[in-house]
Amino acid sequence: MRDAYSILAYVLVILLVALWLLFVFCKCCQSPSSSSSPPRWDNISATPRSTSYGLRTSVVETFPKFAYSEAEGRGGAMASECVVCLGTFEENETLRLIPKCGHVFHAQCVDAWLIWHATCPYCRANLLPQPAGLPSHPGVTIWNAIRPRAAA
Questions:
Q1: Domain limits at 78?
Q2: What CATH number did the domain enclosing 149 receive?
Q3: How confident is the model over 7-44, as pLDDT tens digits?
Q4: % helix / strand / coil in the chain, to the nearest 5?
């Protein structure tokens, strides 16, 4: 009988230690100071974060805008859908062209995307200006294309 109690005591101690380690591990993973933790969906707002790596609005505004025409869109040279919102282009909607790769999106959709990202939403081409000798968007430098970080 004594052996049964000692085995039960060992099992209980091992179980308590395992629960304590699981609790500590979960607390470490939920630490708000952890920079690698993913954002919580209830904290995401429509305004850009100060640490965003998207393009400045002034840079995005240099990308050409035009009205969609079904006659031009059906020729196959241009997509008929916006991959950001997954909506079909309608007659006379304002579209924006990404000069580097030639992809077209609703201006409103791609403008919101580029606040947060410095890549094409379709092909993920890097839209940051390239160093000298590589093709880049005219008149833009890498330093004025990146959104500024907040002072720490």
A1: 52-152
A2: 3.30.40.10
A3: 989 999 999 999 888 887 777 665 444 444 444 434 44
A4: 35, 10, 55
